[in-house]
C-alpha cells in the first residue's frame, strides 16, 4: 500500500494504551478516584465496596482508580476509609481487586495520608510538614504537629509497604496521591511547608519527599507494576503551589520513571477538584487542560486528565491531538456505573446525567463540596445494590442523611 493511501491512526477513547511498565489499558476511559467510605470498622473493604467495584468493572472503563486507601490507621481522610498497612486485610483486598478487574479493567489502588487535614481519629492531633493550621473551615480547629525526620522516614516505609501489599493482593499497581491538599501535596506547598531542613525552604526540597516516596514505592512493587501519581496543576490559592513549579515536579516525576500522571488541582481551601472553581477555569470544558497542553510540550509521559470533561467529541479531540492519554471521569460514575460502555458505543454522554446538589448562595463552596461527597456516598450504596441509573436526593435530604451517617461513622472510629 502506498503511503498516500494509508489511513492515519486516530486515537479515541476506544484505543488501548501501553504504559511504560508494560501494562496495557484496554481503552482510554478511567474511573477517577472518589472516596467511597465503605470500609468496615476495622478498615477492611466491605462487601458493599466489593459489589460496587464489580458493577464498575462491568461498566467498560479501561482503568479503575480506587478512592483513598490509608497507609496509617492513625490518620484517615474520612470515616470508613479503607486502611491497608499490614496483611490483616489481604484476603478482603484481594476480593476487591478481583471484583473490579474480572471483566478486564485495570485496577489501581490510590494510597494516601491526609496530613494536617485528617478528619480522624478525632482524639488524635494531626501532623503536617509544619505546625500551621489549614485555613479551611472545620479543618482549622486542630493545630497540626510538625513531623520529625524519623516520622518522615516511617511514612516513607508505610507508603512502600501499602503499595507492596496492594500488588500482592492483585492490584495492577498504585496511585500515590500528591494532590488536593493531602500530606504529600502539603510538602509541595509553600504555604503549608515552611520547614527549614532538607524537606523545605525551596522547590527542590519541597518535592524531595514525593520523589523519595516514588522511589521507595517503585522498589517495593517492581518495574512491571503501574506507578501513578496524582498531582495538582496548581493549588489555586495565594502563594500556594503554582503551575510553573508544578510542571517542574511533573518533569522530575517523569525522570523518576512513573507510568501515569493524573492532573488535578485545588485543595480543601480552594476546592477546584470538585468543580467549585472561579469562572476563569471554566473557559474550556476541562478544568486543567491548559496545564496538560503546556506539560505535553515538554514531556512524553502518559497523562490522565480529570475534571469537568463531559462530551465524547471533546474527549476524542484531546486524545487525538495528543494533549493527554487517558480521560478521567468521576461524578458520572457515581450516577451510572456503565457510562464508559455507553461512551465507547457512542450512545450516551455524561453531560446528560444528573449532578450533585448545590446551594446557589455566596460562600457556600465548602458546603457544596461536602454535599458532593455525601451525595456520591449515597449513590455508591445504591449502585452496589444493583441500581444502574441513580438520580440521587436533593440538597436538604443529602445533608440530613449525610450528617446522620457521618456522625455515626465518626463515633465508631474514635
List the helices and strands and how they pair.
Layout: E1 17-18, E2 24-25, E3 29-31, H1 47-57, E4 63-65, E5 69-70, E6 82-83, H2 90-101, E7 106-112, E8 127-128, E9 145-146, H3 149-168, E10 173-178, H4 183-188, H5 203-206, H6 208-221, E11 226-232, H7 243-256, E12 260-264, H8 289-296, E13 303-306, H9 312-321, E14 326-329, H10 339-345, H11 365-384, H12 395-413
Helix pairs in contact: 1-2, 1-11, 3-6, 11-12
Description:
The protein is α/β, with parallel strands linked by helices and 414 residues long. It has a single domain (22-352), classed as Aldolase class I (TIM Barrel, Alpha-Beta Barrel), CATH 3.20.20.70. Helices cover 35% and strands 12% of the residues. Strand 3 (29-31), helix 1 (47-57) and strand 4 form a beta-alpha-beta unit. Helix 11 crosses helix 12. The chain is globular and about 55 Å long. The relative contact order is 0.13.
Please give a handful of descriptors for the protein shown:
two-stranded antiparallel sheet, TIM Barrel, 414 residues, alpha/beta, disordered N terminus, 12 helices
